[in-house]
Amino acid sequence: MRAAKRTSETGPEPSALDTIYSRRAVRSYKPDVLDEPTIRKLLDAAVHAPTAIHEEPWEFVVIQDKAALKRLSDRAKTLAGEEAAKHRDLLKAPGASSTNAHPASMLADPNFNIFYNAGTLIVICGKPMSQFVTADCWLAAENLMLAARAMGLGTCCIGLAMPVLNTAEVKQELGIPADVTAVAPIIVGVPSGPTAPVPRKAPEILRWVR
Ligand SMILES: Cc1cc2nc3c(=O)[nH]c(=O)nc-3n(C[C@H](O)[C@H](O)[C@H](O)COP(=O)(O)O)c2cc1C
Predict the structure, then answer these.
(1) Alpha-carbon distance 22 to 30, whole Å?
(2) Are 59 and 182 in contact (CB under 8 A)?
(3) Ligand 1 mean position to 3 CA, how many Å?
(4) Nearest to residue 70, comparing CAs of 112, 34, 98?
(5) Mean pLDDT for the chain overall
């Protein structure tokens, strides 16, 4: 499916600030699969991010195969479950945070798909270049997410997928060279409805020297 075209009914293009303030981590999608021109538009927006020493260290993997996404989700949950088990004692320690975005029950639920059944996963990968590769890839990720928002699409970073995407086995399957790192996994799709905003704390200014 092509991203919704803006018409006189949908109103004018949103401003950059409207797009920033209305972007949400979208966790519920319509089954539509995005078409190639839409994906290419998102990737083009991504590569227009600032890039240190003009290295452009990014490469992309696009996965739109439902079965492949489900397999990846299952493997990510298994890996996260094993990690959680290793750290269970630490989490029980007095003063340890009880905040856990992905509780064990969720990881054990066979119906929980870490990609929320989105039709597309775009993995932004970083080539081994300078110390700024990770920063560049995340800037590209934000560009991609804001462009998607401006095109009427939803996105969500899926940090839970990072460990599995960086295993030798999955890298080989996805054509990611051994020395390239999967940095930012982003799901994209047509939101199934509106997503409520998550409030932010006011910026903490440590010092304003003037
Ligand atoms: C690096 C990173 C990793 C994230 N990983 C996940 C994830 O694995 N699963 C998920 O549902 N949301 C994930 N999120 C989304 C955040 O939970 C979300 O951005 C945050 O709650 C604020 O909500 P908002 O983006 O709608 O403002 C991730 C966000 C970032 C920046």
Answers:
(1) 19
(2) no
(3) 22
(4) 112
(5) 92
**Average pLDDT of 114-126?**
98
Distance from the CA of 141 to the center of ligand 1, in angstroms?
12
- Give the residue, by CA position, lying nearest to ligand 1 atom 19: 25
33 CB neighbour count, 10 Å cutoff: 16
71: helix, strand or coil: helix
pLDDT over 90, % of the chain: 80
pTM: 0.91
- Name the strands in the sheet holding 181-189, side by side, starting at the edge strand that comes first in the sequence: 58-63, 120-126, 181-189, 154-157
| Residue with more model confidence, 157 or 108 | 157
C-alpha 156 to ligand 1 mean position (Å) = 6
> Could you give the C-alpha distances from 55 to 40, 58, 126, 207, in angstroms and in order?
20, 9, 11, 33
Mean pLDDT of 45-68: 98
CA quadruple 63, 192, 71, 113: dihedral sign: positive
Q: Is the pLDDT of residue 27 over 90?
A: yes
